[in-house]
Write a structure and sequence with these properties.
Strand order of the largest sheet: 5-4-3-7-6
Distance between the termini: 73 Å
Radius of gyration: 26 Å
Amino acid sequence: MSGSESDPMDSLSEGAGSTDHMEIYRKSQYLNRPLFVGSGNAVQEAIHDYVKIFTEKMISKAALNSILQTAKAQLPVPNLLPPSYSKICGLLDEELLKLEKIHVCINDCVLFCDQCSRLDKCPICDEQRFKDTDILGRRYPRRVYSYLSIRQSLENLFGCTNIAQVMQSKGGAVLDVPIVLDDIIDSPKWLDWMSGEEDATYTKIVLGINTDGVNPYSSQNIQYSMWPIIISIMNLPKQHRTKDYALILTGVVPSRCPRRHGGGLEPNLEIYVQLLVSELLRLSSADLYSAYTKAPLTVKVQLLAFMMDFQGYAKFFKMSGANSYFPCPICEIKATRKQQSGRHKMVVLGHSCQPRLRNFDREVSHLK
């Protein structure tokens, strides 16, 4: 290869996003080639290092482009280092998780999908779905929700031999109820779900969900509330299931007001929860490929854990909040209004589960 030859990246980037099998094969061959003549690193290894810097240091795409162009100019000529962020995405397009862009009503009434996919107005509040048409006749939605499928993430996890082996091992739980619960795998709910006939052709997956309001602009004194919806896989070991690489971010629900207008309106989570529930129902029996058994596998998914505070719990399930007359969604004990320091507060004076808690403390002290 001489320096006068055209960059092979040009021909590959033209097919970015293509589903042609020959194009996928060409990209995989390109990623496995040496970075330059005599290099001990492949193109894929170099891309991994730069993407790691991009994500961990949270630099901008423009900064990454400058780093790539500087490094490409300093490497021996010719070399196969992609010169920009877009070129990297073109190479890794088939390996990246696909985001589903779903149009949403500006007031969070409905998602414009399934039965509402052809509507131009919200059937509830009658708000327009699209902005005004520009000079080129293009129409852009007023509000978009980016959704990441849980199935895609499970396919990636089961594509790794070691992770698939752990997820098919029932989390290492012993099918006997212990006296003290150390983890969810010791709970009766887990044991009841995992019990059954041993069959190598299917496995059961337990998911946990977490959501809470986040204000990324709090340092700028701007009221803005966005709600990330995160899924964790409880089949993984306890020390790994909350790591960044093991969590599934299905989507981030934005505020109902743009940031420049104050962003003070919190979103309505109901329609986004419905989207999540629809996929969970489809995953109640789904066929995936397991790299551990090297065979198709039937996966049965169940959502058993809800890891959120009372405010998030109340908003997620459309229940009364922590400052209401019924703050606990389990025991439904009624709170009383008390005046303290000139302010009225809701106070819980008793708890219906206290006898059970005293028995539990007695059992624990006996073990000690």
